[in-house]
Amino acid sequence: HIAKTAGTSINGRLAGKYERICGHKGYSYDYYQYNEREKKKGSAVRPSGRGKVRNTTMYQIGYEDCDWISIEGHWHDFDRIRDYPLEFHIPCREPISHLLSECNHLGLEFNCESSSQDDLIAQIEACDLGTDIRFSSKLAEYSAERPLKCFDPFPIDRYMSYMGNILQSRRFPVKDDAKRITNLKRNKTLECLWQPEYAKVKATVTRYLFQMYEYYRFCDSCIGTSNDLFEQNMK
Questions:
Q1: Which residues contact 145 (CB under 8 A, 6 or more apart)?
Q2: pLDDT tens per residue across span 182-206
Q3: 14, 41 in Cβ contact below 8 A?
Q4: 54-82 residue pLDDT tens
Q5: Which residues contact 28 (CB under 8 A, 6 or more apart)?
Q6: CA-closest candidate to residue 149, choices 221, 58, 61, 234
Q7: Pick from 194, 217, 205, 199: which is nearest to 119 by CA?
Q8: 99 φ/ψ sector (left φ>0, alpha ψ -120 to 50, else beta)
Q9: Measured between alpha carbons, how far is 208 from 120 in angstroms, rounded to an integer?
Q10: Reduced to 3 states, what is the DSSP secondary structure of residue 178?
Protein backbone atom coordinates (compact mmCIF):
# COMPACT_ATOMS: atom_id res chain seq x y z
CA HIS A 1 0.00 0.00 0.00
CA ILE A 2 0.94 3.66 -0.25
CA ALA A 3 2.32 4.98 3.04
CA LYS A 4 -0.02 7.23 5.06
CA THR A 5 -3.23 6.28 3.25
CA ALA A 6 -4.88 4.39 6.16
CA GLY A 7 -3.30 1.12 5.06
CA THR A 8 -2.54 -0.08 8.59
CA SER A 9 -6.11 0.51 9.72
CA ILE A 10 -7.68 -0.99 6.60
CA ASN A 11 -5.43 -4.07 6.69
CA GLY A 12 -6.11 -4.66 10.39
CA ARG A 13 -9.86 -4.18 10.21
CA LEU A 14 -10.17 -6.45 7.18
CA ALA A 15 -8.05 -9.15 8.86
CA GLY A 16 -10.28 -8.91 11.92
CA LYS A 17 -13.52 -9.34 9.97
CA TYR A 18 -12.76 -11.45 6.91
CA GLU A 19 -10.97 -14.61 5.81
CA ARG A 20 -7.88 -14.85 3.60
CA ILE A 21 -6.51 -11.37 4.27
CA CYS A 22 -2.74 -11.35 3.70
CA GLY A 23 -1.03 -8.10 4.62
CA HIS A 24 2.11 -6.58 5.99
CA LYS A 25 -0.04 -5.30 8.89
CA GLY A 26 -1.86 -8.54 9.60
CA TYR A 27 -3.14 -11.93 8.40
CA SER A 28 -6.63 -13.28 9.00
CA TYR A 29 -5.50 -16.65 10.28
CA ASP A 30 -3.86 -15.34 13.46
CA TYR A 31 -5.23 -11.80 13.74
CA TYR A 32 -7.77 -12.59 16.46
CA GLN A 33 -5.11 -13.68 18.97
CA TYR A 34 -2.72 -10.94 17.86
CA ASN A 35 -5.45 -8.38 18.59
CA GLU A 36 -6.12 -9.91 22.01
CA ARG A 37 -2.42 -9.58 22.93
CA GLU A 38 -2.34 -5.97 21.77
CA LYS A 39 -5.46 -5.04 23.78
CA LYS A 40 -3.80 -6.26 26.97
CA LYS A 41 -1.12 -3.60 26.57
CA GLY A 42 -3.82 -1.09 27.54
CA SER A 43 -2.94 1.78 25.22
CA ALA A 44 -2.41 2.60 21.57
CA VAL A 45 0.59 0.72 20.21
CA ARG A 46 2.69 0.77 17.09
CA PRO A 47 2.29 -2.34 14.91
CA SER A 48 4.80 -5.03 15.76
CA GLY A 49 5.22 -8.80 15.75
CA ARG A 50 2.41 -10.48 13.84
CA GLY A 51 0.93 -7.05 13.22
CA LYS A 52 3.95 -6.08 11.16
CA VAL A 53 4.87 -9.04 9.00
CA ARG A 54 8.20 -8.88 7.20
CA ASN A 55 8.11 -9.05 3.41
CA THR A 56 10.45 -12.05 3.48
CA THR A 57 7.98 -13.87 5.75
CA MET A 58 5.12 -12.98 3.40
CA TYR A 59 7.07 -14.44 0.48
CA GLN A 60 7.70 -17.64 2.46
CA ILE A 61 4.01 -18.01 3.35
CA GLY A 62 2.99 -17.40 -0.25
CA TYR A 63 -0.20 -15.87 -1.62
CA GLU A 64 -2.01 -18.96 -2.88
CA ASP A 65 -4.74 -18.73 -0.22
CA CYS A 66 -5.22 -14.94 -0.27
CA ASP A 67 -8.26 -12.97 -1.38
CA TRP A 68 -6.82 -9.55 -0.41
CA ILE A 69 -3.14 -8.65 -0.34
CA SER A 70 -1.28 -5.62 0.98
CA ILE A 71 2.47 -5.35 0.43
CA GLU A 72 4.64 -2.54 1.78
CA GLY A 73 7.56 -2.57 -0.56
CA HIS A 74 8.60 -1.94 -4.15
CA TRP A 75 5.83 -2.17 -6.73
CA HIS A 76 8.03 -4.75 -8.46
CA ASP A 77 7.24 -7.13 -5.59
CA PHE A 78 3.93 -7.93 -7.29
CA ASP A 79 5.96 -9.61 -10.02
CA ARG A 80 5.98 -12.64 -7.71
CA ILE A 81 2.23 -13.03 -8.19
CA ARG A 82 1.75 -11.60 -11.65
CA ASP A 83 0.11 -14.84 -12.83
CA TYR A 84 -2.69 -14.50 -10.26
CA PRO A 85 -6.00 -12.82 -11.21
CA LEU A 86 -5.39 -9.40 -9.66
CA GLU A 87 -7.35 -6.19 -9.26
CA PHE A 88 -5.35 -3.32 -7.79
CA HIS A 89 -7.07 -0.88 -5.43
CA ILE A 90 -4.97 2.28 -5.16
CA PRO A 91 -5.78 4.51 -2.15
CA CYS A 92 -5.78 8.15 -3.24
CA ARG A 93 -5.43 10.81 -0.58
CA GLU A 94 -5.61 14.60 -1.06
CA PRO A 95 -2.00 15.56 -1.92
CA ILE A 96 -1.29 18.21 0.75
CA SER A 97 -2.89 16.19 3.53
CA HIS A 98 -0.90 13.17 2.39
CA LEU A 99 2.38 15.10 2.33
CA LEU A 100 1.83 16.54 5.81
CA SER A 101 0.94 13.13 7.21
CA GLU A 102 4.25 11.83 5.83
CA CYS A 103 6.07 14.75 7.45
CA ASN A 104 4.33 14.05 10.75
CA HIS A 105 5.34 10.39 10.61
CA LEU A 106 8.98 11.43 10.30
CA GLY A 107 8.72 14.14 12.96
CA LEU A 108 9.27 16.92 10.42
CA GLU A 109 7.50 20.29 10.23
CA PHE A 110 6.92 21.82 6.81
CA ASN A 111 8.28 25.37 6.68
CA CYS A 112 6.31 27.79 4.48
CA GLU A 113 8.64 30.73 5.13
CA SER A 114 11.25 29.17 2.90
CA SER A 115 9.38 29.36 -0.39
CA SER A 116 12.13 29.05 -3.01
CA GLN A 117 11.73 26.20 -5.47
CA ASP A 118 14.82 24.38 -4.21
CA ASP A 119 13.76 24.66 -0.57
CA LEU A 120 10.21 23.47 -1.20
CA ILE A 121 11.34 20.52 -3.31
CA ALA A 122 13.93 19.59 -0.68
CA GLN A 123 11.23 19.57 2.01
CA ILE A 124 8.91 17.45 -0.13
CA GLU A 125 11.68 14.95 -0.77
CA ALA A 126 12.59 14.86 2.92
CA CYS A 127 9.02 13.88 3.85
CA ASP A 128 8.45 11.39 1.05
CA LEU A 129 8.01 7.79 2.24
CA GLY A 130 8.82 6.05 -1.02
CA THR A 131 5.81 7.03 -3.10
CA ASP A 132 7.51 6.25 -6.42
CA ILE A 133 8.88 3.00 -4.99
CA ARG A 134 5.45 1.75 -3.94
CA PHE A 135 3.45 2.88 -6.97
CA SER A 136 3.85 2.79 -10.72
CA SER A 137 1.23 2.79 -13.46
CA LYS A 138 3.13 -0.25 -14.76
CA LEU A 139 1.22 -2.24 -12.13
CA ALA A 140 -1.49 -2.35 -14.78
CA GLU A 141 0.69 -4.84 -16.66
CA TYR A 142 0.06 -7.32 -13.83
CA SER A 143 -3.71 -7.07 -14.22
CA ALA A 144 -4.06 -6.76 -17.97
CA GLU A 145 -7.75 -7.61 -17.99
CA ARG A 146 -8.61 -5.09 -15.25
CA PRO A 147 -7.55 -1.42 -15.13
CA LEU A 148 -6.06 0.00 -11.94
CA LYS A 149 -8.84 1.00 -9.54
CA CYS A 150 -8.68 3.95 -7.14
CA PHE A 151 -10.53 5.03 -4.02
CA ASP A 152 -10.50 7.72 -1.35
CA PRO A 153 -9.55 5.85 1.87
CA PHE A 154 -11.46 8.25 4.12
CA PRO A 155 -13.78 7.45 5.74
CA ILE A 156 -12.44 3.90 6.13
CA ASP A 157 -15.92 2.45 6.68
CA ARG A 158 -16.76 3.11 3.04
CA TYR A 159 -14.01 0.78 1.79
CA MET A 160 -14.90 -1.76 4.50
CA SER A 161 -18.48 -1.83 3.25
CA TYR A 162 -17.32 -2.20 -0.34
CA MET A 163 -15.06 -5.17 0.47
CA GLY A 164 -17.71 -6.67 2.73
CA ASN A 165 -19.69 -7.50 -0.41
CA ILE A 166 -16.72 -9.46 -1.80
CA LEU A 167 -14.85 -11.15 1.06
CA GLN A 168 -15.87 -14.10 3.24
CA SER A 169 -16.66 -13.23 6.86
CA ARG A 170 -14.65 -14.83 9.66
CA ARG A 171 -16.27 -17.41 11.91
CA PHE A 172 -14.98 -15.47 14.93
CA PRO A 173 -14.63 -11.79 13.96
CA VAL A 174 -12.65 -9.34 16.05
CA LYS A 175 -15.22 -7.29 17.96
CA ASP A 176 -12.95 -4.80 19.73
CA ASP A 177 -9.98 -3.64 17.66
CA ALA A 178 -6.80 -2.79 19.54
CA LYS A 179 -5.82 0.79 18.76
CA ARG A 180 -2.71 0.92 16.59
CA ILE A 181 -0.87 4.14 15.79
CA THR A 182 1.76 5.01 13.21
CA ASN A 183 1.70 8.82 13.61
CA LEU A 184 1.64 11.39 16.34
CA LYS A 185 -1.62 13.32 16.62
CA ARG A 186 -1.64 16.21 14.16
CA ASN A 187 -2.77 19.75 14.93
CA LYS A 188 -3.75 21.11 11.54
CA THR A 189 -4.15 24.64 12.90
CA LEU A 190 -0.36 24.68 13.29
CA GLU A 191 0.37 23.35 9.79
CA CYS A 192 1.26 26.36 7.70
CA LEU A 193 0.11 24.99 4.35
CA TRP A 194 -3.51 25.21 5.51
CA GLN A 195 -3.20 28.88 6.45
CA PRO A 196 -4.75 31.46 4.03
CA GLU A 197 -1.59 33.57 4.02
CA TYR A 198 0.33 30.66 2.51
CA ALA A 199 -2.21 29.84 -0.21
CA LYS A 200 0.33 30.53 -2.95
CA VAL A 201 2.90 28.28 -1.28
CA LYS A 202 0.28 25.54 -0.99
CA ALA A 203 -0.57 25.87 -4.69
CA THR A 204 3.13 25.71 -5.58
CA VAL A 205 3.73 22.64 -3.41
CA THR A 206 0.71 20.93 -4.97
CA ARG A 207 2.08 21.62 -8.43
CA TYR A 208 5.47 20.19 -7.48
CA LEU A 209 3.83 17.04 -6.06
CA PHE A 210 2.10 16.44 -9.38
CA GLN A 211 5.30 17.07 -11.29
CA MET A 212 7.45 14.87 -9.07
CA TYR A 213 5.24 11.85 -8.42
CA GLU A 214 3.29 9.68 -10.85
CA TYR A 215 1.05 8.57 -7.96
CA TYR A 216 -0.65 11.98 -7.64
CA ARG A 217 -1.10 12.27 -11.39
CA PHE A 218 -2.70 8.83 -11.50
CA CYS A 219 -5.07 9.64 -8.64
CA ASP A 220 -6.09 12.93 -10.22
CA SER A 221 -6.94 11.14 -13.46
CA CYS A 222 -8.78 8.28 -11.73
CA ILE A 223 -10.88 9.66 -8.86
CA GLY A 224 -14.43 10.37 -10.03
CA THR A 225 -14.17 8.12 -13.10
CA SER A 226 -15.56 4.65 -13.78
CA ASN A 227 -12.35 3.25 -12.24
CA ASP A 228 -13.12 4.89 -8.89
CA LEU A 229 -14.46 2.08 -6.67
CA PHE A 230 -17.09 4.31 -5.10
CA GLU A 231 -18.26 5.97 -8.30
CA GLN A 232 -18.56 2.48 -9.73
CA ASN A 233 -20.52 1.31 -6.69
CA MET A 234 -23.02 4.18 -6.96
CA LYS A 235 -24.04 3.30 -10.50
A1: 85
A2: 998 999 999 999 999 999 999 999 9
A3: no
A4: 999 999 999 999 999 999 999 999 998 88
A5: 14, 15, 18, 19, 20, 21, 22, 170
A6: 221
A7: 205
A8: alpha
A9: 9
A10: coil
